Request: fold
Amino acid sequence: MSVSQLARSIVESPTLRLNEEARLLRERGEPVIHLGIGEPKNKAPLSAILSTASKLVTGDIKYSPTDGQPSLKKAIIRYTEEHYDRIVAPENIIISSGAKQSIYNLLYSILNPQDEVIILAPYWVSYPEMVRMVYGVPVVVRPEDGTFYPRLEDIEKAVGPYTRAIIVNNPNNPSGLVFPESFIAEMVDFCERRDIYLIMDDIYHKIVFDGKQAAPAYRFTKRDNEATKIIVINGVAKLYGMTGYRIGWAIAQRELVQIMTNVQAQTTSCTSLILQAGAEGALNGLQSVVEAVRLQIQNNRDVIMQELASFNGVRVTKPEGALYCLPDFRVYSNDSVGLSQFLLEKARVVTVPGKEFGVEGHLRLSYSGTVKDVTEGLARMRWALDPTSANEIYIGDRKLVRDWL
Reply:
């Protein structure tokens, strides 16, 4: 079969591949615990369900405007004013089929072949691949001190004449890090001085713990919406537990939004009218659901930190937000891909290799599920890896004996 070189160069999404492996194992009756996916377990908010249903019962489901329903844009404008202290116009917003499509449309719109995008490690697995998919070049910046905190001086060294954008995911997937206000302020100033887009992936911006706040980049610019280099990406997937709705949006300069609209018109045409109605219902409904999700995730964060403390030699930076932690498992193996596969085979626990996020020797663990999943999953992992743990364990209704340590 003949396929393009570009298509061959794009790697498979590790999270989606692991999801499929877990699904197949579960279909065979295997008691798999999934610590790989970032998906809150709450039901969609009632306001979202009712809004979706009201649109369905009319039977009048047609195309929507390519850049999104005006009523949903109105809700996003209100949300942006409340949570970002920023007034934006409908022409500054484009609604897409998830925040991922928003980022892809944006990269397609701003990059020429061989243009570069600065990506901070650890990074979300899709950033480098999306840059490559539009013939750009991902330039990864890794902190030199072994932490997950990037430094402006390292970023400055990586910026060259072909640099078009820097992506900042705050809170960070996969580390759970919340960047300090001083760093966000530095990035805004640097990007606006150097005429570089600052792409803020804010999909987790309200899932923060211990009184932390993910500072909005808009706070640190004096430029208006048409002059600033800040582009904000957000959506309803994580905050409201509505991952299946696939509704995200971008806020940018009007001219850039129009270009992104043209791109979207020639690909997906528009975003589902039904799903936009659900997102509108969530944004306009009671916001206590967001706090309920946040509190549940924070509790799960505390549980997973307690469980990880029982592992000999495993180091972990305490997450300050998002749905994940990124422990260092090099005491057991430097090969995170092999380690992740081993844990799936022996313990029936899904993890994601740190190599996929630019940090080898680590595993990304999601604590977005239930407390039972977290505690049992970590107990299985410790049984499989730590020779000081009990030699026997029950996985499902089977008693297993460890014979490889």
Q: What stands out?
A: The radius of gyration is 22 Å. The mean pLDDT is 95. The longest strand covers residues 163-169. The chain has two domains: 5-43+288-401, 46-284.
